[in-house]
Design goal:
It holds the Pfam family Ribosomal_S4. One of its GO terms (biological process) is ribosomal small subunit biogenesis. Part of the 30S ribosomal subunit. Contacts protein S5. The interaction surface between S4 and S5 is involved in control of translational fidelity. This is Small ribosomal subunit protein uS4. The chain has two domains: about 10-90 and about 190-204, Orthogonal Bundle (Ribosomal Protein S4 Delta 41, Chain A, domain 1); about 95-180, Structural Genomics Hypothetical 15.5 Kd Protein In mrcA-pckA Intergenic Region, Chain A, CATH 3.10.290.10. Helix content is about 45%, strand content about 10%. It is built from ten helices and five strands. The chain has helices spanning about 10-15, 25-30, 40, 50-65, 65-80, 85-95, 95-105, 110-115, 145-160, 195-204; strands spanning about 120-125, 125, 140-145, 170, 175-180. Strands 2-1-3-5-4 form a five-stranded antiparallel sheet. Helix 5 packs across helix 6 (about 85-95) and helix 6 crosses helix 10. The longest helix is centred in the first third of the chain and has 16 residues, at about 50-65. The protein is globular, with a radius of gyration of 18 Å.
Length: about 200
């Protein structure tokens, strides 16, 4: 499946937000858009459409989702009862690759996606290699018993041991197993976007 493989630091600088954890220091050093006109680019007044589109793109790149897939998430969120924007964020947060990232099984969403793709992750005892798999409260996510899986996860957990765990997940680092305790609320999710603008963009 196609995915974005371009420069991450430039994307973070374009949107003014550290979309990928590894780009935070770059954004601190150069907090302006890339390119020769980067310092002056922020002075231009953006249209409402441009702002809403930027919010959607930030969320898309952050979770590593393509446009067609992102629209499917929006349509699913819009069909459910509740606040569409919040449901959209919940659908993205409960992707298996993102949950593995939150549990510390990957030091980035891309790394967590690769771990899932390569079959290193079990959900309720069954091997799942689909990064977009939707987890539910009560699901148990565990690293497989193969030596290669254990070694890879151990390296990743060493890199992420200082990263705080979100409240809606619990993890046993010894057994490399995590549990989804509940559906994340809006306050549990990184507030880097205004999801209401995304809903309005798709509602036009």
């Amino acid at each position: 499946m196609a995915r974005y493989t371009g420069p991450r630091a430039k994307l973070s600088r374009r949107f003014g937000v550290a979309l990928f954890g590894s780009t935070a220091k770059t954004l601190e050093r150069r907090p302006f858009p890339p390119g020769q006109h980067g310092l002056r680019a922020g002075r231009k007044k953006k249209s409402d459409y441009s702002i809403a589109l930027g919010e959607k793109q930030k969320l898309r790149f952050m979770y590593g989702v393509l446009e067609k897939q992102f629209r499917s998430y929006y349509e699913e969120a819009a069909s459910r009862r509740g606040v569409t924007g919040e449901i959209l964020l919940q659908l993205l947060e409960t992707r298996l690759d993102n949950v593995c990232f939150r549990l510390g099984f990957g030091n980035s969403r891309a790394a967590a996606r690769q771990i899932v793709n390569h079959g290193h992750v079990l959900v309720n005892g069954q091997r799942v290699d689909i990064p977009s798999y939707q987890v539910k409260p009560g699901d148990k996510i565990k690293i497989g018993g193969k030596a290669s899986s254990q070694q890879l996860a151990l390296r990743m957990m060493d890199l992420t041991q200082s990263v705080p765990l979100v409240d809606w997940l619990t993890v046993d680092r010894e057994s490399m197993e995590g549990t989804v305790e509940r559906v994340p609320e809006r306050s549990d999710i990184d507030p880097i976007v205004n999801e209401q603008l995304i809903v309005e963009l798709y509602s036009r």
